[in-house]
Specification:
Blueprint lengths: L1 E6 L2 H9 L5 E4 L2 E4 L5 H15 L7 E5 L3 E4 L2 E3 L3 E5 L14 E5 L5 H13 L6 E5 L6 E7 L2 E2 L4 E3 L5 E4 L4 E4 H4 L6
Parallel strand pairs: 8-9
Antiparallel strand pairs: 1-3, 2-3, 4-7, 5-6, 7-8, 9-10, 10-11, 10-12, 13-14
GO molecular function: endonuclease activity
Organism: Rhodoplanes tepidamans
Protein name: Uma2 family endonuclease
């Protein structure tokens, strides 16, 4: 949902959004209100946080949910789940450059998550993987940095018997872990 009368720079947006209960992103300098997620969405986010947190190197990385990421000159996004290097000040309004970003689809976000956000996130020099997780079926689209670039299109996993392989981070995320308790 666009808030058409509201345009602002990043610093103003971060101060403004921090004083609101609703969730917002800044996209090209324009304020966009985020919808409240469904229970299935929240379960997948919980599962991703658990799966990632049980597999990352806690000496150098941490998993966070729903924090601000600088995604471009006039854009601040709030991905569902991110993995970032340790050391970000707890009072910071924007996280460190992420190494992994995950978004969970909703009916209204398919085009954005697989289009605009993919284009923005894949330009981040720190990013090693971007995951887009379906909410209504066991399906994950994901991009993994191979050398100095990402493949032109996403890899797709559609079987609960498979895993999402994130080789730059040495992670395999079983689809059963991602979708545990979601389709019951």
């Amino acid at each position: 949902m666009n808030v058409p009368q509201l345009r602002m720079d990043k610093a103003t947006f971060l101060d403004w959004a921090g004083a609101r209960e609703e969730r917002y992103e800044l996209v090209g300098g324009r304020v966009v209100m985020m919808i409240r997620p469904l229970i299935g969405h929240a379960r997948i986010v919980r599962n991703l946080v658990r799966a990632l947190d049980s597999r990352i190197d806690h000496q150098s990385l941490e998993v966070l949910a729903d924090v601000a990421v600088d995604a471009g000159p006039h854009t601040i996004r709030a991905p569902d789940v991110i993995v970032v290097p340790l050391g970000v000040d707890s009072r910071a309004k924007v996280t460190a450059p992420p190494v992994l970003i995950a978004e969970v689809l909703s009916d209204s976000s398919v085009t954005i998550d697989l289009g605009d956000k993919a284009a923005e996130y894949l330009r981040l020099p720190s990013l090693l993987a971007y995951l887009v997780v379906a909410q209504d079926e066991p399906k994950v689209w994901f991009w993994v940095r191979e050398g100095d670039r990402f493949s032109p299109g996403p890899h797709v996993v559609e079987s609960l018997d498979a895993a999402v392989a994130i080789s730059p981070l040495g992670l395999d995320l079983p689809m059963t872990d991602i979708f545990a308790g979601v389709h019951s």
